[in-house]
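Subject: Re: docking follow-up (glutathione)

Dear J.,

Thanks for your patience while I sorted out the input files. As discussed at Tuesday's group meeting, I've set up the holo structure prediction with glutathione included as the bound ligand rather than trying to dock it afterwards. The sequence and the ligand SMILES I used are pasted below, so you can double-check that they match what you have on your end before we go further.
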Amino acid sequence: MSLDVYTGATPNGWKISIMIEELIEACVDLGDVNMHHMSLSDGNQFTDSFTRINPNQRIPAIVHDGRNIIESCAILHYLGEIFPTSLFPTDEHRWDVIPWLYWQAANIGPIFGNKLSYTRYITDASEEERRHPIERFGKEALRLVGVMDYQLEKHPYLCGEDFTVADIATWCWVRSYKWVKVDITTKPRVFDWMNRVRARPGVERGISFGVPKDEIDKFSKERREQYKQNGGNIASNSSLRSDI
Ligand SMILES: N[C@@H](CCC(=O)N[C@@H](CS)C(=O)NCC(=O)O)C(=O)O
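The structure tokens for the complex came back this morning:
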């Protein structure tokens, strides 16, 4: 049994390094795990060998016993099902979790991702051109945080009493609220949830993948500059790769 994980130091990437560490915390025997660090700035996602694993040329991806799985939330679902723990219920309660995993993939990820790109990365549009998308994605991001707040009024985690893959997926994006410039401080319940999740040892180890220990919670000025430059190279139209 072998599990190859292709991931990197990004919100979607950390979902999987956290999941691996949470499964280890739950004493699951994962077999041989090989973590492959993917450098997006070096274009590792575009190599022929990685394209054969993920034709979509994005991280994360895994190969488990010869089966390739792409898309971060599908990977969380797969690992949750293959290695049963409270992270992913196997009885009918999985239907408390699966919709929120889809919700993250369809909403939080794209909206926070676009807000981030227009706020920090895109270099080939004027301030005026960026104004409308920043406002639109900013408002929608706040609405989504409001939806989380509604859920968290009922229970400590998004889907109930237990920490699940839906929390992992959502937290990885929402934790970057300062970088994305979405003010979640008006929602104390979301803030408390952020801290509750951050306090987990598996989460702590997962988010240190690809990041120096002393920068887990706050990147250095140099790293912020580096992220900005790499993000700009990836997000701007002039450098978008359209071929595969
Ligand atoms: N929907 C995908 C999104 C994956 C994605 O966009 N990954 C980013 C990093 S967070 C990436 O690989 N970007 C590289 C690029 O755009 O070239 C998922 O959830 O796995």
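A couple of observations from a first look. The first helix runs from residue 11 to 25. The pocket of glutathione is lined by residues 10-13, 40, 45, 58-60, 71-73, 109, 234 (CB under 6 Å).

Let me know if you'd like me to rerun anything.

Best regards,
T.
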